[in-house]
Amino acid sequence: MGSEIYNTRNVYLRCMAAIYLSAFTSFYVQIRGLYGPNGILPSHATLGIQDKRHFFDKFWENPTLLHLAPVFGLTVSYCMELFALTGILLSFLGLVYQKICNLFIFFTLWLLYLSLYKVGQTFLHFQWDIMLLESGFITIVVAPILFSEKRKTTPRDQLCFWLVKWLLFRLMFASGVVKLTSKCPTWWNLSALTVHYESQCIPAPLAWYLHQSPVWFHKLSVVATYVIEIALPFLFFAPFRKLRLFSCYGQMLLQVMIIASGNYNFFNLLTITFCFSLMDDRHLFGLQNNKKASAMENTVTGITLGLLIYFTVLWFGIDLGKEVPVHSEIQFSAKDFERALKLAVATSIAIGAISFFFTACTSLYDLVFRSRSSLFEYILNVIQYVTYFTVACFLFGISLVPYSTLDPATRTSLPVFLNRWHGQFDQFHLTSSYGLFRSMTGVNGRPEVILEGATELQGPYNEISFKYKPGQIERPCPFIVPYQPRLDWQMWFAALGTYHHNPWLVSLTYRILTNESDVINLLDSNIYNEFEEDWPPKYIKGSLYTYKYTSSSDHSVTDNSWKRTRVSDYLPIFSSDHEPLIKYLENQRILGQPDITLTNTLLASFLDKVWVICSATEPHIFIWALLVSAFVVTRLS
Fold first, then answer.
1. What secondary structure, in 3-state letters, does 605-633 show?
2. CA–CA separation, 542 vs 508, rounded Å?
């Protein structure tokens, strides 16, 4: 019989509600600036408002409930606000009241986030958004249809919760593997962390201090990252609890370190939430603590950890150096890794399939031989189990399609019907491929685009500051987890390319020139003081800078975290009446696109009032206020 996971599952569901609360709130406060009718990328331009087809035809092609905006009498951006607020309310209630965490609530949350994602364009093209959609759908399967007074694990719980474990495995294993398959020199020579802390999108304050660590420590940290991401995930499927828990806390440690050093919104908190799939009530709640591990479990655990240490030392050439405390260097070649990866991907699929069907069989055994219900309940449980088993088989099967892209040979050997199923439901993002930090940018300093405005063509030009990304060198980046400022994040990507590939940046420039208040609210609140009477600027240009962290000695003198060097021009000088600029934005469907006529002025007025209240404080503080409030209400009730 499987371990009791009733309470562990409930903790997972509450955590997913908290993640949804963070995600919806983070998105809500940015809707007007990003997607409003005068926003950077107006959402109504992507929806096909003139399309007169039936709702279900449009929904299957582009699954978003925003097709119903005319039914609500709202513009598309107002409808986005309504959906986001609904998501905030439902996730808050789910976090407060356990009985609300059921299938119907999580289906609604998933559908609402999917609806917003489908019109999110560039600003929602992040791995954690598709990961929230995949895990959100799995959570629909994990959640009970309705909460029962019988506080015990049902036969299908183990099977459904296994899907979370499989998602965690795919995420972590792929994230480790792609670092090496990318052929990025910094990952192969173990120097990636010497540049990571200063080159990540929005470094946390602690990142500067970690950047000052010695090179040998950075290299050893990369080795630890490889072990945690590539080796430990295989222990998720170990038959012994100690090995599963060891791998679980390894993942949690890595995520906590990422949270401390970088502002990656809800991503790391979501990954930690997945780790509950490796626990059970006995461990998490201290139940049945009198049950000791068997001699075999202790022996196998000891041997496994011993082998893990041995091969880590062997493959990464770890030894006590003379010039540095610890020396480390990869001892295998790219060809060696390619051969090992081919075997590892095929083996992991086999292990996953065996683990899945073993879990299914033990759950079925519990249902058939350990059930103490009436005949009617027994029949209902059998029907329910068969239904959930079918859904779980489907989700596991289609997940192999994106996962197998790690090895092309494995990808081509998959059954044709799996590829067909995956393609038929791809628009719902039920499963995706992952792989974070594939290659390290900013080896010689992080590139940054700095916008500058002036009232005269010849200048002088003043810097237009953003709220969170590096800008003025005397200002360190703040800690804003779990909020994601999507404009600041996208500016990081813009610096890696050219403005020709980022039409949203040209749109941002135009919105600043025309002084669109909703867009200006996404920028630094001190911008009016910096420009004084020269706001809004009549001309804007962009410059490309290289930023580097200051050394400890420089920091002690200047107290600055950054130093920067101007590299080149990035944006030409634009003005609001620049005809080529306006023509370009019209061609990009940013200007001149029809929106839905607003008829429900009462609801729109209500949304305006809620917006004023919610935007009165810093977004990350607002999110934490909601989370803390939910916790307090939970404790009081």
1. HHHHHHHHHHCCCCHHHHHHHHHHHHHHH
2. 12
At residue 562, what is the residue type? W
Beta-carbon contacts of 303 under 8 Å, excluding residues fewer than 6 positions away, are none
Residue carrying structure tokens 């770890």: 318
Q: Helix or strand or coil: residue 576?
A: coil
* Strand extents, DSSP E, 335-445: none
Strand blocks (E) in 508-608: 539-549, 562-574
Asked, as a colleague might, if the bond just before 536 is cis with ω within 30 of 0, I would say yes
How far apart, in whole angstroms, are the C-alpha atoms of residue 183 and residue 584? Answer: 37
Longest dimension (CA), the chain: 86
* pLDDT over 90 at 380, yes or no: no
* CA–CA distance, 611 with 31 (Å, rounded to integer): 10
Q: What is the pLDDT of residue 69?
A: 93
- The reported pTM is 0.96
Neighbours of 229 (CB within 10 A): 23
How far apart, in whole angstroms, are the C-alpha atoms of residue 329 and residue 318?
A: 7
φ, ψ of residue 41 in degrees (nearest 5)? -130, 85
Full DSSP string of 528-547: HHHHGGGPSPSEEEEEEEEE
Identity at 608, one-letter amino acid code:
D
Give residue 278's pLDDT band: very low, low, confident or very high (50, 70, 90).
very high
Verify cis geometry, omega within 30 degrees of 0, for the bond prior to 482. yes
Question: What integer pLDDT is reported at residue 288 of this predicted model?
Answer: 56
Which among 139, 120, 145 has a CA at the least distance from the CA of 31? 120
Task: Tell me how far apart the alpha carbons of residues 487 and 441 are, in angstroms, rounded to a whole number.
Answer: 19
Name the residue with higher pLDDT: 293 or 623: 623
- Distance, CA of 264 to CA of 92 (rounded, Å): 21
- Is residue 153 over pLDDT 80? no
Each residue's pLDDT tens digit, 204-256: 999 999 999 999 999 999 999 999 999 999 999 999 999 999 999 999 999 99
The continuous run of DSSP H or E covering 463 comes out as strand 462-463
CB atoms within 10 A of CB 289: 9
CB proximity list for 9: less than 8 A, separation 6 or greater: 142, 153, 157, 161
Number of Cβ within a 10 Å radius of residue 454: 18
Q: From CA 4, how far away is CA 499, in angstroms rounded?
A: 55
Chain Cα centroid distance, residue 103: 22
Q: Is the separation of the CB atoms in 271 and 256 below 8 Å?
A: no
